Please model this.
Amino acid sequence: MSFSSSSVSSHPLAVYGWDEGWEAEFAPYAEQGLLPGRVVRVDRGLCDVITPVGTVRADTEFVVPRDPMKVVCTGDWVAVDPDGSDPLYVRTLLPRRTAFVRSTSSKRSEGQVLATNIDHVVICVSLAVELDLGRIERFLALAMSSSNGEALLHKSALSWESGAQPVVVLTKADLVPDAVTLAYLVQDVETTAPGVPVLTASATRGEGLDVLSAVVGGGTSVLLGQSGAGKSTLANALLGEDVLEVQAARDVDGKGRHTTTTRNLLALPGGGVLIDTPGLRGVGLWDAEVGVGQVFSEIEELSERCRFHDCAHESEPGCAVRSAVDAGELPVRRLESYRKLMRENQWIVAKTDARLRAEIKKDWKRKGAQGRAAMEAKRGRWR
Ligand code: GDP
Ligand code: ZN
Model:
């Protein structure tokens, strides 16, 4: 059986993101008589899969459960065996385009896949509170570290192109008193996130939703952001109905809230797909070094002109980054968040990589020794 592009767009799974790429990927399984489907929910080895014949319950026991990164996840495209009864069996996991991974606990350093095949990461930032640009930078680094599952396992292959596109949405714009202030806030965020679209939205007034709806219309999106940022409200506005539970204004820490839906993957009436898994709330950084570099691209560029290749931009002579700060071209706050994020990120990577961990320890020892030597030299002057 062959398909033209018109049959792809009229495919029953088109609203769930089925396209020519998946069609081609799935072709050999179609020949075996398997059904294509997208996972909308996973629950202890069983998953709900949307297929052309409706939503089925399927067991994942035949698909490589030994590697935690390859456990079937919401957003995955799979091949389901139509023979059998409830539950059916998932036979194959189609290669992921992107995967959103977070470190699980401090003890175990494997990643946990939270959602897959994501095109847009929508970072929600509330205008009800003062803008925390550092926090936006952290979320951006996280968004850019989402990548295809293989690449994440082999860190070198991480790249912006293989990951999802970030978008920042400043929510609750109705709480900003005037348009000029709003424009300044947008500008602040744009400077923090060069090249990243920054939108504003007010769910209560229904403003900005058309633009957002157009942005997320072309693929699969996840909403990230602090609890109380307005993610559920925005999701409901995009869905056109109250699918997700919005927290009461008092319940700002988000404890005890749950979603009323059993599906973690929803088709939007304006096009596109939204993924909202419980795990996506409160995500942490995971192997985000490349992401950090992209968020702080101007610092990375400057550091190429530093005299020393491994300049830490502290007190080294000929440091291009420090001179940019001194010249007022680079806000010192930017440099500080860059350092903080790099340190944090290095530590997370080190948890998984014994060799790197040893190197960092050696570096600390060396710096400690240098510090002691410097102190002794200073003391020597007074002798
Ligand atoms: P989430 O934790 O990110 O999902 O945030 P919620 O969607 O639960 O919203 C948190 C609070 O912000 C709720 O009290 C909402 O009513 C409120 N809120 C959400 N969107 C808006 C908005 O556009 N304007 C105003 N004024 N409040 C909003
Ligand atoms: Zn430097």
Q: What stands out?
A: The chain is about 35% helix and 20% strand. The chain has a mean pLDDT of 77. The radius of gyration is 24 Å.
